[in-house]
Amino acid sequence: MLTSIRGVWHGGADRVGAFHDRHPRVGPVIFTASALYFFVQIVVAWVVTPPYSLIRNTISDLGNTACTKGLCSPRHVLMNVDFIYLGAVMIAGSTLLYHEFRERGGTEQNAAFVGFLLMAVGGLGTIIVGAFPENTVSVLHITGAAMAIGGGNFCIFILGAVLKLPESMRRYMLVFSITSLTAGGLFASHKYFGIGAGSMERIAAYPETVWLITFGLFIWRYHPEEPFPIRRRNQPSHDGE
Predict the structure, then answer these.
(1) What share of the chain is helix, strand, coil (3-state, %, to 5)?
(2) Are 128 and 140 in contact (CB under 8 A)?
(3) What CA–CA distance (Å, rounded) separates 62 from 158?
(4) CA distance 24 to 219
(5) 238: DSSP letter
(6) pLDDT at 226 > cutoff 60
(7) pTM score, two decimals?
């Protein structure tokens, strides 16, 4: 089953792999470019009426296409394009960065495939969020949001649990993915514990995008000039020998 899905996902793997080999910086740059997602939110939120609240208002409120007394986001088109842009970044970046780990083989290769596939699914969900704002087809909007937060954070958890990465990177990935998934479940259950719907949603969603930026920078730094600074688990240090 896994082999069949892998074949479908990168049926053009030879072309993608060849492109990645020729241009190894493109994948990391694409992930890092997700920083634009935050900048656009500031631009859109600036003109929302009544004044936009990071605590009360959700991210999706910025893309709401209606303009009522309760909420008016004049730049909603820009925000929805921003969602679609982020989704495309997640899909394109995952397809390329998978090739960083494709040659490791065994468990790591499978984990990289499943993880980056889940991030691509999250990217598709993010595109759905932008294509169907919260005040239009709510079922599709909610489904897209669940795919985005769930797929992306499960990706980060799997990669952090299996790949041989620096210990600090692994801890960061595991802690923040678990935190985000927990916050996502609480947000879906409308349990905000006094911090507001907007705050809870941001705890669920923002670490994923921050990870895209930091992981892109990490891969940029350590490929191709030098190997990842990794010590295998349970491998003794040579410092004391």
Answers:
(1) 70, 0, 30
(2) yes
(3) 31
(4) 9
(5) S
(6) no
(7) 0.85
